[in-house]
Design brief:
It is a single chain. The protein has 182 residues and is of the alpha+beta class. It has 2 domains: 42-87; 90-178, LytTr DNA-binding domain (OB fold (Dihydrolipoamide Acetyltransferase, E2P)). The protein has 3 helices and 10 strands. The chain has helices spanning 2-87, 130-136, 175-178, and strands spanning 90-92, 98-100, 104-110, 113-118, 123-127, 141-145, 148-151, 155-158, 162-165, 170-172. Strand 8 (155-158) and strand 9 form a beta hairpin. The radius of gyration is 44 Å and the shape is rod-shaped.
């Protein structure tokens, strides 16, 4: 029996040692898991900060891309319109009068009509608005007065209030359109 008691005593000490070792291992494992959890929380916070900085940047970038796309589409439309103006070397009025742009010196508005003066000394009267015609003309045509559009190619001299053309005609310059002249 002495041996049995000694054996039981040693077995209980061994069990206590095993429990102590298990507790130590568990404590180490617990501390290790705790450190991993803290590291994961730190990474999560870092990722959240990056995400909160990145999302507005991506949103702004997306808006800029959409804006640039619409600007591109609009500019393509304007380029097509300008190409049509450049290719078009004449203007046809509502009364089927055809006037070549190279011969057009100036245009004068007269109530609901416009009078077109050409370099060969002729003038044509047609029904229409000056603003509609202004959109169809190339850039070398300038508005000098609310009633006049002039071809820069035929301008001989510019004073403060009058344009002198090559054929001797004079065109008034209003204060409103004075700044548009070179």
């Amino acid at each position: 029996m002495f041996y049995l008691e000694a054996h039981n005593k040693k077995a209980s000490e061994l069990n206590k040692d095993k429990l102590a070792i298990n507790n130590i291992e568990y404590e180490e494992d617990y501390q290790s898991k705790k450190r991993e959890l803290q590291e994961m929380k730190r990474r999560k916070l870092t990722l959240q900060k990056v995400l909160f900085m990145l999302l507005p940047t991506l949103g702004i970038t997306f808006l800029i891309i959409v804006l640039l796309y619409f600007i591109y589409k609009q500019s393509r439309k304007e380029v097509r319109e300008i190409k049509q103006l450049v290719i078009k070397n004449h203007i046809i009025f509502k009364d089927k009068t055809k006037v070549y742009i190279n011969d057009l010196m100036y245009i004068k508005a007269e109530d609901y009509y416009i009078r077109v003066f050409t370099s060969d000394g002729k003038n044509h009267l047609a029904r229409g608005r000056l603003s509609d015609l202004d959109e169809q003309l190339p850039p070398n045509f300038i508005r000098t007065h609310r009633s006049y559009i002039t071809n820069r190619n035929f301008v001989k001299q510019i004073s403060k209030t009058i344009l002198f053309l090559l054929d001797g005609s004079t065109i008034p310059i209003s204060r409103k359109f004075k700044d548009l002249l070179p």
